[in-house]
């Protein structure tokens, strides 16, 4: 039996990621490593050429951000430093300051997940993709904060990810990560 008002299937598998907007990725990964032992951190710059397509409020967009990815148990943590262009992260900082920005939901079929979001009344406010080595991988942020107090991100992980620009801490062998 569906809950009252229906369901949103991407939520059925639970939250796979917590996204936090930070002012400085390098400082943040040092703090998370030093205080909590969270790492290693894989650091990327998302924007062109890594992202092959980007939108903001339904229009083609150009933006850049640095992201650092790690795990805390089975939960992926994504730290995000906005760099340039209009983004949901810059909007968030203007409205709330730095802090927890989104909950990430893994999906296997982004077009289907987007149709389910639309059916649930959740519009896409920012999206991008093509960051996998095979041109796959996508993300889409939904306009869920006004209703639910948090932004949901739909994440279709690429089959093969590009090598990170940097791993922190330096010189530390990369640990096996939970399956995507």
Note the main attributes of this structure.
180 residues; alpha+beta; 11-stranded mixed beta sheet; 11 strands; 19% helix; disordered C terminus
What do these coordinates show?
The protein has 180 residues and is of the alpha+beta class. The protein has four helices and eleven strands. The protein has an eleven-stranded mixed sheet. A hairpin with an 8-residue loop joins strand 8 and strand 9. The chain is globular. The C terminus is likely disordered.
Mean pLDDT: 92
Question: If you compute it from the alpha carbons, what radius of gyration comes out, rounded to the nearest whole angstrom?
Answer: 16 Å
Which regions contain 5 or more consecutive residues with pLDDT less than 50? 175-180
Ends: how far apart? Answer: 29 Å
Which range best describes the helical content: under 10%, 10-25%, 25-40%, 40-55%, 55-70% or over 70%?
10-25%
Shape: globular
Provide a count of the helices: 4
Number of strands: 11
Order of helices and strands: EHEEEEEHEHEEHEE
Strand content: 35-45%
Main sheet, how many strands, which sense, barrel?
11 strands, mixed
Strand order across the largest sheet: 4-3-8-9-10-7-1-6-5-2-11
How does the helix and strand content classify structurally?
alpha+beta
